[in-house]
Design brief:
Elements: E1 2-3, E2 6-8, E3 13-18, H1 25-28, E4 31-37, E5 40-48, E6 53-58, E7 64-72, E8 81-87, E9 97-100, E10 104-107, E11 112-113, E12 117-119, H2 128-140, E13 145-149, E14 165-167, E15 173-178, H3 180-195, E16 199-205, H4 217-231, E17 237-243, H5 253-266, E18 273-277, E19 292-295, H6 301-309, E20 313-317, E21 320-322, H7 333-345, E22 349-350, E23 353-355, H8 365-368, H9 376-388, E24 395-396, E25 404-408, E26 412-416, E27 424-428, E28 434-440, E29 445-448, E30 456-460, E31 467-473, H10 481-484, E32 492-494
Parallel strand pairs: 2-8, 12-13, 13-16, 16-17, 17-18, 18-19, 19-20, 20-22, 21-23
Antiparallel strand pairs: 1-3, 3-6, 4-5, 4-7, 5-6, 7-8, 9-10, 10-11, 14-15, 24-25, 25-26, 26-31, 27-30, 27-32, 28-29, 28-31
Helix pairs in contact: 4-5, 7-9
Protein name: DUF5060 domain-containing protein
Domain DUF5605: 402-472
Organism: Paenibacillus mucilaginosus (strain KNP414)
């Protein structure tokens, strides 16, 4: 038995064990461990990693001494005990991302997390040169979340990459035989993203993925359990139980709730989990879904879904800047950027997609990674900076405004105008003095307007598209509980 004696909070504790290798251990041998520290208790399932090697991984959530005991159907793996010390987190270890309130995210240590994501669904299957280019591009970008498929999509498994499943003697795929080499490779890619400070959102099931249509309910559960056991102690992981659920014939939202519940029960790290679907195709009211993940070009839906479900909203597929022969993959960069800002100003988080077909074989960023070729990625980074400069707790307000607006009432306002070319805007704000910045979301500029503003005032604007205003109360200016007692007419905005 190989075991660590010390691990930091939200780190990865691992037991490495030797056990039976005959038959199909991944299916035939059960293995788990219970972990105790004071009144804290957690469980983690183990997984078979090939050549008679078994691993149990656990993410301790509290500092102190933890003890453990294994349970297994294999006598040599059953009843093993030990302990380890969990120390404080070091460096950039802030733990997994959680939801905070009805519209926000934060790391486990409380640090705010503003997801600005992209999609590179098959980047982990590419050759070493392209993978390195992808990581370099991500390091230089403002992206902090990458959506990727655990299983290869049809036709995307590259030469030299192991398959995730074994084969029958006649060559047919055997989804009962999980291949450790494939999942170890995926683990290396996740660790590379973590080293870049980027969250890996793992799509477990996709109708176009290798083996997805061959799995029975039992096969599906075995595969999902393996993924949770292997990756569930990694801090920088999110779960997307299924993408495009409508592509699975005969399945219902209840089937995906079953998977989400399984993930919630088995995931010792308590990671975020959802289903990415078109509006109306998933049960986002389920307690097992931590947030909402939408496939829709209507980014204005972000505010509607937050209001309906009281959960943060990610629009993970709002379309892509690109040149493909499908409307959703041929947006202009200006339209992609507009969707990013409109969704953000409505309290949601829109992923930045790119789908320019390259001349050297038709590869695209959205699928294969590499290097972004478009103009929206840089502007997504600018948006992230603008959002991070806002105070914590900004919320969408639809009650008084005729343009998408985030606010902390009486403190800060961010209003996005999109395609509307207003010549001026009128404001009436709570007592206090305010500064105003004019933001050009395309040129990526912030222009402080001269002077200070208070009470009822007018802002003259250049007549152009895609502008935003940021209004912030000056430190020491009056603001407090008395303002909250005013009626809804206290603040207004007029075209």
């Amino acid at each position: 038995m190989n075991v660590q004696s010390k691990v930091e909070r939200w780190g990865l504790f691992e037991l490495k064990l030797r056990g039976p290798s005959e038959g199909n251990p991944g299916e035939e041998v059960s293995l788990s461990a219970g972990f105790t520290s004071g009144s804290r208790y957690g469980e983690a399932e183990g997984f078979y990693d090939g050549d008679g090697t078994y691993r149990i991984r656990f993410m301790p959530q509290e500092e102190g001494t933890w003890t453990y005991r294994t349970q297994s159907s294999a006598p040599e793996l059953d009843g093993l005990t030990g302990q380890f010390v969990c120390a404080g987190p070091s460096g950039e270890n802030r733990g997994p991302v959680r939801t905070r309130g009805e519209a926000h995210f934060a790391y486990a240590d409380g640090t705010r997390f503003i997801p600005v994501g992209t999609v590179c669904s098959q980047w982990h299957l590419q050759d070493g040169e392209r993978r390195a280019a992808t990581l370099e591009a991500l390091r230089a970008s403002g992206f902090n979340k990458v959506r990727m498929s655990v299983l290869p999509l049809s036709g995307e498994l590259q030469e030299g990459v192991p398959e995730p499943f074994g084969r029958h003697p006649d060559g047919r795929l055997d989804v009962r035989l999980l291949q450790p080499e494939y999942f170890r490779m995926l683990e290396e890619r996740i660790n590379e993203l973590t080293a870049c400070g980027i969250e890996a959102e793992l799509v477990l099931l996709h109708p176009g993925a290798l083996g997805a249509e061959d799995m029975s309910t039992k096969d599906e559960e075995r595969y999902v359990r393996h993924c949770i056991a292997r990756f569930g102690a990694c801090a920088g992981v999110w779960w997307s139980a299924v993408e495009e659920p409508e592509g699975f014939a005969g399945r219902t939202p209840g089937d995906w709730n079953r998977l989400l519940r399984l993930i919630a029960e088995l995931d010792c790290g308590g990671h975020l989990r959802s289903v990415r679907s078109r509006p109306g195709a998933a049960d986002f009211g389920s307690p097992w879904a931590t947030h909402i993940s939408l496939d829709t070009p209507d980014v204005k839906a972000a505010s509607d879904y937050t209001r309906a479900y009281g959960k943060p909203v990610l629009i993970d597929s709002a379309g892509s800047e690109g040149n493909l022969d499908r409307p959703e993959a041929s947006l202009t960069p200006e339209e992609m950027v507009s969707r990013l800002w409109e969704g953000a100003a409505r309290g949601g988080y829109v992923s930045c997609g790119e789908a320019y077909e390259e001349a050297d074989g038709g590869r695209i960023w959205r699928t294969h990674g590499g290097k972004p070729l478009g103009k929206s990625a840089a502007r997504a980074a600018f948006l992230r900076r603008m959002l991070e400069e806002l105070p914590d707790g900004m919320r969408y307000n639809s009650d008084r405004y005729d343009a998408a607006t985030l606010e902390v009432r009486g403190e800060c306002y961010l209003q996005y105008f999109g395609p509307h070319r207003f010549a001026f805007r009128g404001f009436e704000l709570p007592e206090g003095r305010y500064t105003v910045d004019l933001i050009d979301t395309w040129q990526m500029t912030v222009e402080p307007l001269p002077g200070e503003y208070e009470g009822r005032f007018r802002i003259d604007l250049p007549v152009k598209e895609n502008l935003a205003l940021r209004i912030r109360r000056l430190p020491g200016a009056l603001s407090g509980p008395a303002e909250e007692e005013r009626d809804g007419t206290t603040e207004s905005i007029q075209a």
